[in-house]
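INFO  loader      accepted 1 record
INFO  loader      residues=238
INFO  predictor   begin
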Amino acid sequence: MSTSNKYGFTFNGHHSSEFGLKVLSTKSMVLPAKTKTTVQVPYQSGLLDLSDLYGTNTFGERTITFPCRLDIGYNDRDRLYNTWTKIVSWLMNPTGKRELDDDAQSDFFYKAEVQKAPTISEMSSFCYLTIEFQAYPYRFHERADDLWDPFNFNWDVAQRTTIDVNGSSYLNLINNGENVVTLMIDADSDVALNLNGEAYSVAKGSTNNDEIMLNPGENSLMITGNAHVTFDWFEEVI
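INFO  predictor   done
INFO  writer      dumping tokens
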């Protein structure tokens, strides 16, 4: 099993390399499965699938496993257990899911938690650790700006997300993800929005209201008022 001194992951404010962890090439991921709701209809063969009742798929969680090597073994027990204590505290102390950044996917991040206790196998001069994250099914991708350097031509969409309104103005916002997501709004004055036929009042300042949602694909938006307004969101991808 080969290791990498550079490749790793960031979680709870620290990169795995800060603890001397080297991720092995046997890293694995179990992708989320669809959640199915079915009923048996009397006198009918098969099952009736109610999973798409609301027009979208639902998914279970995904599992991400990082097998790691730590170049400290039982020949130096004090150092090993001190390091092991720091690693466990780093991984297990957070309550609920936190951002998990995998170096292999710099454009995306996960919301994940270590629920199972990490396992350790001690050798004389090194040890193996297995760290398993339980993650929200979708990966998160920050909505792209039109800046050239960070723009991902395989994924990102160039679009206008900032506007100066004096009366009424229209925008077409494209959510390139696969899930309905919250639209985050920053305005320097109160404005009224009509998003996909639904009316909303938005107060001056920053608004992050899970009632104001972007559908996957194109979204028609009319803004009324006198303000400088910026829109942002995180796209969600399986």
